[in-house]
Amino acid sequence: MYISLISACEKRALKRTRTILDAYAIRTGTRSWMTPITHEGLQTLWWLLKRVASRHTAVACYRNDGHNRMKLLWIVGSSKPFGPEGHFPIGSTQRRRLPVHPSVRGLCLLAATAGVAHDLGKVIDTFQAKLWAAIAGKEPPGDPIRHEWVSMRLLQLLRTGIPLDQAWTVLAKPNRVCEEPRFFCDGLRSVDDVLDFSVATHHRLFGPRNSSVARPDASEHCHQERHVKEAAPLPADIVHRLARLQQRLQTHFAAQSVAGAERILSLLTRAALILADHAVSSQSYPGLPPRQPVLLANTRHVDKRRIANQPLGWHLQAVGDLAGKMALNLARLSLPGLQPDAIERILTPAPTSGRFAWQNEAVRCIQSIRQSSQQPVLVFNMARTGAGKTLVNAKMACAFSPRPRLAYALNLRTLTLQTGASLKRTWQLEDDELSVLIGEQVVARLHEQASASALAPDGGQADEPQWDYWVTGDMVELPAWLEGLERTYPRLPALLGSPILVSTVDFLIGAMSPGLQARHIIPLLRLIDSDLILDEIDSYTPIQLIAILGLIQVTAMLGRSVICASATLSLPVANSIHRAFQAGFTQRQKWQGIGEPSHTVVVNDLLPPHVMQANVPFEAAYQDCLGQLRAALPTIAYRRPTLLEVKERSESAWLDSIQEGAQRLHDHHAWTFRPCNRQISFGLVRVANIRTAIMVADFLAGKLPHAFVACYHAQDFLIQRHLKEHRLDTLLRRSHGQRHIEEDEEIRMKVAGSKYASIPFIVVATPVEEIGRDHDFDWAVIEPSSLHSVIQTAGRVNRHRLVSVQHPNVAILQFNRNWVGQQQDGPVFIRPGLEAANGGGRYKSADLAQLLDWSALHVLDNGVRFSPHHQMALDEDRLLQQQLDEPLKIITGEAGYNSCWMTQGFYHQFRLRAHEPMEQWLAERHEGQWRFIRQLEDGKSIPCEMGVLYTPARPNQWLAYSLDELHNACLTWGISTEQGLSVRLRVQSRYSPPCYDVSFGLYWRVQAALA
To answer: pLDDT for 222-232, tens place per residue?
Structure first.
């Protein structure tokens, strides 16, 4: 290719970049170069320029596309010297100050006022005594009344015209200081309410802590004394400035009503206040250290002791000044988007025929919407398994904006790593264009090494993580106003600056949890300038889904688009998503005075994209889409279901049904393994829980001596789970047939060494196999937890080959394990499942023979989830509706629930992950023998002998490794044995150890689990 390069660098950057450009291209002018170059050479040139890039670097690269057309490929450094398409200006003018939209001006005023008022309550004697006691090296007393609550109450009294000295007199009366504001009942109704809320909650949210549906109270802020004893006078300049700011606020918002926009104002005002408070508090006071009796704002550590840091008056003034600027920065945040050449690669059309052709129509639909509207878009991607949802989601996100930035949120660590690697590999993205974030560094390192090369890596050990999350991706230069936050979180440039972020949803969910402080602010900054993609959104439990709905609402508030993907997206889930999105966008409409509506689009691989009309009720329109989708589903059977009857209510009968089903499916779907001329198949047995999985694997290994049995679950040694996943990924990706299986050395040895003519390879797995594993099994036996779990598991059968089958290749058990273990009827579709363990909503039956209409069930696909003929689908819609209804009213702010979102209890109850007590178990060599160590929460380690129940290896085990083999694997893969030979278990009993099954994993005995 032929390229041209233009430099707009300044100062030292000009000399550094000229040296590099002169080595690769012919200089054709003072600041221009041209040359023919290969793709590899272009990548090297880009990388060298990135290495020396600074604030003064600006180099644009263009490709000659013929016909006198130059195509901008990328810009290294600042893009400000160039036009939107890379044009170099012949001259330029710059306004001293960009115009500020009235809505943003009001936000800045709110933030500045909150900054001046946020710590007024620190003048009370108890708080000042606490600070000076800490400086003196004494144990500081606790706060009977938190200073931010006192700040709010003082602000409320001053607003009514009460002089400052009289305000303190009022607060000194019993119970007056803890009077609850009006918005505790009515929600935020005015700018004053927004200001009070931001001041009172800039450290923590209101109580109650343990109730999910309750109006706020003062329990988190008023602890003991119910009045203010003494308070020093506030600095006069602060009082005067606060009064002036409040007057400006009233004047501004009298002319510009923001009724209905209080939530978004509180979100951004509070964020600006927290950022400003963090930045100012981290500074050292420029004057002499304050001495008593000067009012203090805070202290700092110097040489392992505390000293006075900032006077209160200086702190309030500095935070007020900075908070207004932070609000403006938030409203104008614009970080680097994808380079033009990357956008071009991503938006390259799919082949016009084949199973990916539908992607082109989906992208064109989004592009046509963008030509007429710049408002956010809500997309429901309901394409079937194997149709390329992951890639088309990113394509549609690139069509949203000429400066694409997206955040891809997934529910599993391994799926996050796979998605990041797939996007980067497919579109040849660079390290500063895509970052991957998960919560476990060792897992990411193993994935990187497995993906990078088949050669054995060196034996070095992994570095200790320096942050709560593991992040990969090159650093991207952030705005100067984020430098303070960047010093605290060194990986922030990769998190915020990268145009594409692929992360576990655990990181982004903080944006809807205001009580998390920094863990709230950082994902919020990411979403302010990124569209959101949520994959397999209906794989979450109803409690988790509430948190996801809150995230969707915040994203819509920020004016960003959302893509929700799932092949089984039911009406209750889709309707809840739509309500949350519209509630957020309505807030933004009210704030910025937008009259134009947002758009909702449904895409799938069978029908043209459907843009929903704003005047048509969503439920009716979506129901119509589901009806059209059911009618368009192909009748070719890639997955035929059958019912596995359980003859009696006993564990033995239940296990016998699994054995019978596995053997029958193997007989029908075994294929000839040509190297040995024997029949083999790869089958999946999906069960709901880990202990059940180990029990079933042990049973099948004993009853089917001709089978090779593996057990795949999350409660495994880290290195062992990695080895299993690596082998399954290698064997069960069958897009190009089965030749790689026939050439696999391990499989050839096992088949050749068996005395049987027909050999099934069986994987007994928990729900970790359902989502994200790109595996293609020949058949599956499924223990039902929900219809979603059945369909998702069935999606791992005949996934790549898509061969029409005549015999059933998916067997569904009539009852699940919970039904077998009950003495009397109760909820069985629980943990996992939609039924409530406390006796809430229930299915009409526990019997799959009654829950599914088997006379109409000839093909198992996503249409089963939407069919009105299956009672299980109707029951799940009803259960989801019941469990989402009340929390969704809180999210959308309906009457009677419009203040519940302010409480810690709401975010505690509807959090993404339940904080169950866990303990770490390690295997280590001791005096030539292996022993197990339990690590307690206080850091102590207790050796534990495992001889109580030590199950030896089965002769027909598969994907199982001895501790010695796992130890060697740790060295091979470059991780420490402490990391690789560790496993986290839920705390079940402090008095008995778990059991170690050499073939199938670590688990608690039934007695211990029930203790």
So the answer is: 887 677 877 88
Q: How many other C-beta atoms are found inside a 10 Å radius of the C-beta of residue 962?
A: 11
DSSP state of 501: E
Strand-by-strand arrangement of the 500-504 sheet: 470-472, 434-438, 500-504, 406-410, 531-535, 562-565, 377-381, 599-603, 610-611
**What is the 3-class SS of 159-193, one letter each residue?**
HCCCCHHHHHHHHCCCCCCCCCCCHHHHCCCCHHH
So what's the pLDDT on residue 708?
98
For residue 962, which of 978, 975, 974, 950 has the smallest C-alpha distance?
950
Over residues 384-405, the mean pLDDT reads 91
- Rounded to whole angstroms, the maximal C-alpha distance in the chain is 96
How large is the average pLDDT for residues 718-738?
Answer: 93
Residue 60 has a pLDDT of 92
**Could you give the CA distance from residue 642 to residue 636 in angstroms, rounded to a whole number?**
16
Helix (H) or strand (E) holding 678: strand 678-686
Cβ contact 27:33 at 8 Å: yes
Region of 386 (left: φ > 0; alpha: ψ -120 to 50; beta: rest) is left
Identity at 570, one-letter amino acid code? S
Q: What b/e sequence results for 703-742 when a residue is b if at least 16 CB atoms lie within 10 Å of its CB, and e otherwise?
A: bbeebbbbbbbebbbbbbbbbbbbbbbebbebeeebeebb
pLDDT band at 681 (very low <50, low <70, confident <90, very high): very high
Angle between helices 147-159 and 191-200 (to 10 degrees): 160
CB within 8 A of 928, min separation 6: which ones? none
Q: Using 50, 70 and 90 to split pLDDT, how confident is the model at 47?
A: confident
3-state secondary structure of 296: strand
DSSP, res 491: T
Contacts of 392 (CB under 8 A, 6+ apart): 359, 362, 363, 381, 383, 603
pLDDT at 94: 64
d(CA 899, CA 213): 10
DSSP letters along 242-293, please?
HHHHHHHHHHHHHHS--TT-HHHHHHHHHHHHHHHHHHHHTSPPSSSPP-TT
Higher pLDDT, 688 or 144: 688
- pTM recorded for the entire structure: 0.90
* Alpha-carbon span 197 to 216, nearest angstrom: 11
Please give the Cα distance from 218 to 277 (Å, whole number). 23
Sign for the pseudo-dihedral over CA of 751, 755, 760, 761: negative
Whole-number average pLDDT of the chain: 88
> Is 545 in contact with 576 (CB distance < 8 Å)?
yes
> Tell me, what amino acid is at 91?
G
- Tell which residue, 68, 86, 239, has the closest CA to residue 165: 239
Q: Give how far Cα 309 sits from Cα of 134, 266, 397, 606, Å.
A: 12, 29, 47, 65
